[in-house]
Amino acid sequence: MGTPQRVAARKAAAAGAIAGGALAATAAASSLGAAAYFARRVLTPDRRRPDDTSILTVERDTVTLDVTPETVVPGRYGLWLDREHGHVRLGDIVDLDESKGRVRREVLGLDFGHLAPGFGRWNPYYYASPPDRSLGLPTQYVDVDTELGTMPAWVVPAAVPSDRWAVLVHGRGARRHETLRAIRPLHELGITVLVPSYRNDLGARSGPDGRYNLGLSEWRDVEDAMRYAVSAGARDLTLVGWSMGGAIVLQTLARSHLADRVTEVVLDAPVIDWADVLTHHAALNGVPAPIGGLSRALMGRRSARRLVGVHEAVDVAQTDWVARAGELRHRTLLIHSLDDEFVPVGPSLALAAARPDLVEMPRWDTARHCKEWNVDAVRWDREVSEFLAR
Predict the structure, then answer these.
(1) Domain covering 131-273+320-389 in this structure, CATH number
(2) Which of 41, 64, 105, 111 could bridge 87 with an S-S bond, Cβ 3.0-4.6 Å?
(3) Using CA atoms, how far apart are residues 223 and 235, in angstroms rounded to an integer?
(4) Pfam families from the xrefs (predicted)?
(5) What is the mean pLDDT of residues 55-76?
(6) Maximum mean pLDDT: which of 4-8, 31-35, 340-344
(7) Is the per-residue pLDDT at 46 higher than 90?
């Protein structure tokens, strides 16, 4: 038996150990919950797109907007009006007064709706309608059979029947309209263009879990689009991908039995390594690095599928194409601005350095994410056309 003091000390130590264990368990549960929440945010489509750009004044050929990182970048862009009931195309900056927070830009055309002071939403795609209405090119509205059912797609036939097709793959949360900027130079090269949907797109079928899989399941829908093109007479395929569309293209090249039909690839601001992108966004949102790392680990664990809310595990390691550079087999033009704020350019530079035999990467700057065409459409068209013509 111990003295009363020793007994009290042992009881205090035991109570402290229990309390410490409880605190540790609470902290672990909190970390797990935070990591699962971040994973779900990354993988869940965001349907809410608020009108968040102030339209201050409207003149005959110009419009004055509030200054934001988007509205002060040079080039051509669009602006959705009145919750997408209208759309206007904007040109270069006419006047910038940062002290007053105002920027005046050219008005290149009102596509539909009414332009008036109020609020709108920046449209980096520039175009707001299908190819026949936006580009004046004959367009077929078709359905592509996929494992989930039919998915809507556009086909822009070459002026002369061609066995060379391009499949254009838009990015995460984007619309097919994102790809319209590439259609004209491809059409002028005599290439038939197919713009498919993939799972969880607005207006398309949802995947089994209703969540993005960062290219690890979406590639199957792109393969089905390639199969559609081949059944329609395509012999040679070009794949073009923007942002997550680039990640989807890379998975397609690695996994599809139709990859041998692909002759060249164009990637615009692609996700070369999802771990790098997720680390970047965790830092931007104040998510501690350990939570971000745990989030990525949870995505890839089969045992955590219900926690993350996915049907298939999302193994981020499979999306690291710097590590997998030796697997690449296709000529690739990689367009990625040094000033991309959303998908850091580092992995693209590393991939180009690792495979100079296959990857061409001209220097681009100034443009924000996926906006190289907007900043310099003439250069974008020329570089893509020259690459595909070789």
Answers:
(1) 3.40.50.1820
(2) 111
(3) 14
(4) Abhydrolase_1
(5) 96
(6) 340-344
(7) no
pLDDT in tens, 223-257: 999 999 999 999 999 999 999 999 999 999 999 99
Beta-carbon contacts of residue 366 (< 8 Å; ≥ 6 apart): 73, 74, 337, 339, 375
Identify the weakest region by mean pLDDT among 21-35, 203-217, 260-274: 21-35
Helix axis angle, 244-255 relative to 219-231, nearest 10°?
Answer: 70
Domain ranges for the chain = 53-123, 131-273+320-389
Give dist(CA 248, CA 250) in Å, integer: 5
Structure tokens at 95: 């006047």
Let me know if domain 53-123 sits in CATH 2.40.10: yes
- In tens, the pLDDT along 322-355 reads 999 999 999 999 999 999 999 999 999 999 999 9
pLDDT at 27 over 50: no
For CA atoms 238, 339, 379, 91, give the dihedral sign.
Answer: positive
Look at residues 175, 169, 166 and name the one whose alpha carbon lies nearest to residue 220: 169
pTM for the whole thing? Answer: 0.91
Residue in this structure with the two tokens 């209208």, named with its chain if needed: 86
